[in-house]
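User: Modeling request: complex.
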Amino acid sequence: MQDQSEVSPCLALDAATPEVLGDDVIERLRAIAVQHGAVAAGTRIFRAGEPFRAIYGVRIGAIKAIRYDGTGEEQVVAFHLPGEFFGLTGIHSDHYVNTTVALERTAVCGLPYQRLFHVANEHPRLRRQLMRLMSGVILTEQDQYAAMAGHTADARLAFLLLDLRERMSRGGAPQDRLRLPMTRAELGSSAGLAPETTSRVFQQFRRRELIEASGRNIRFLDLAGLRRLAVPLTHPGHGTGRTTAA
Amino acid sequence: MQDQSEVSPCLALDAATPEVLGDDVIERLRAIAVQHGAVAAGTRIFRAGEPFRAIYGVRIGAIKAIRYDGTGEEQVVAFHLPGEFFGLTGIHSDHYVNTTVALERTAVCGLPYQRLFHVANEHPRLRRQLMRLMSGVILTEQDQYAAMAGHTADARLAFLLLDLRERMSRGGAPQDRLRLPMTRAELGSSAGLAPETTSRVFQQFRRRELIEASGRNIRFLDLAGLRRLAVPLTHPGHGTGRTTAA
DNA sequence: CAACCTTTTTGACCTGGATCATAAAAGCGT
DNA sequence: ACGCTTTTATGATCCAGGTCAAAAAGGTTG
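Assistant: Request completed. Predicted assembly structure:
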């Protein structure tokens, strides 16, 4: 189950796909998917304002979605990890609204929206899955918002780390270690914090022995402690899958 | 065009509906829509954790979507105004994740999701519109997030006021006046600010003669000034409709 | 209209995090 | 391995905004 990124990278529409969608649909999707080769860190996938053509899935690597805030300052809106989709806001606007950039060596695949829509026209299962996918993105976005608004730097970063941990370990990765694909500055920006603050909070976490961190390599020492710190997302009911969007 | 809230309240799927969807679809939707009578301020529409049944549209009034943050403190996640839909996150989770409460005398209508989906099965137009709707919600959510993260109280509230103004005037309402349906505390909470701060910023806006405000009644005196203050949402390309979600 | 309760405003104070500055590490390309 | 650039860490300072407290408006209900 760990070769997920090899087998049906783009097709992991919201985690539980193979069984849910059926082989025929998977085949159709595979046919329309545009597999892009791996690109180097710093490569832009698309730029805000470009006409919307396709939604993208991350196969390997990581993506940041950014906006340029007035002064030209870069503001990170979201990160996208393997198995997640981005560019979805283009559906509404006919243009991409964020610029997306590879954080490391990254491979994405594109699902041209018109074609995707046509396939969906013939497959109710896929339609339902698409709705679920988008709903999940809204949920993620709201969680993020709720976790940031009116909370301390500690809480925000604890939340972010736990969130990244969970999303990274989706394809069966080690659960106690984590290699961050982004800089402290980028991580901070996504939480509305200055890079210096991010760095200091990391130190604090180390001192408290919540994590071990050398550079971008994190080891979780005390998950319970981190969770206590982080904003508790009181998602009632069951555990659910996750998604993201640009 | 101002009796929109009377004619096809629920059906205004993402603003541009009548022409886009066609009369037959409208008729079908009208048939499945559950029109709820107006409820008093403070009435809960649904509670976090309840099983997901329907998505809701606001006909008249206003809704707040809230979460209870650890300590039991209420945190406002979003406001929903006439013409907007909420409860969409339930699609993914099978449960509502926010609690939604009427802020004033409010009428909503419910679109039972299964039925909605069935109608959509027969109408590609509606499918497309639903995708657009959800994409728009993601966009709104991201805008909000970007506008709040790492910006001053002034900027956040200026943004919020302009946003509310725009959304309120959707059905052809006066563009220079605004009756806020929420308290300062609620407005602040949605921006991650303390009520006192919200109040003080309002005073500051008054002194600067950006707005005139007596209680919940706002008059915009200097839109350009407010916009200069607010976080500029560099949405490239065209102007687009708006939406919201719970 | 009076008593009551909620919301808003204002003041005083204090702290979390931004900012500025600089040093120490890491990466990284050659 | 060696510079060079980018990233991270840490210290000092400052201020926006949170918190506590209390008064002043508003609204609501009997």
